[in-house]
Specification:
30% strand, elongated
Length: 145
Amino acid sequence: MHKSVIGFIGVGVILLLMSMMMTAVKGSTTAPRTDSFSVTTGGGETTAIIGTQELPWKGLTSSVETISSSQPTLDFPLCSFVSGNEVTVSGLDASQTRVLTVTYLYDSNQGFMGASQMATIVPLLLWVGIICLVIGLGMAIFKKG
């Protein structure tokens, strides 16, 4: 019986370490980049679309880490949408010119064909391994009992 408890504790530890592994996968496939843009909004406009040098990682708004403005008392810039390399920034003051500085994550493995895709498959393979381990432990426990 004590072997099964040790096995389940091991599986629990692996599950806890899964979030650390996912962070490591993201860190190994992405790199931060900072671009600056001069943006002018017209009367009544509070959004702007800027074109980044690289494609934000997986087209996610969460890949845009920070947006700052040279008009910090007027603007409260937020990334509201990402499409390709275009980032829609909202929260800007109307009829103003400012410099927006955008820091975002992009796929750092672009030059290595398939590297990012392989890195994203690794967690799935580990989950399959963990599920097989749990099933195997369960079968071993019930076979003895």
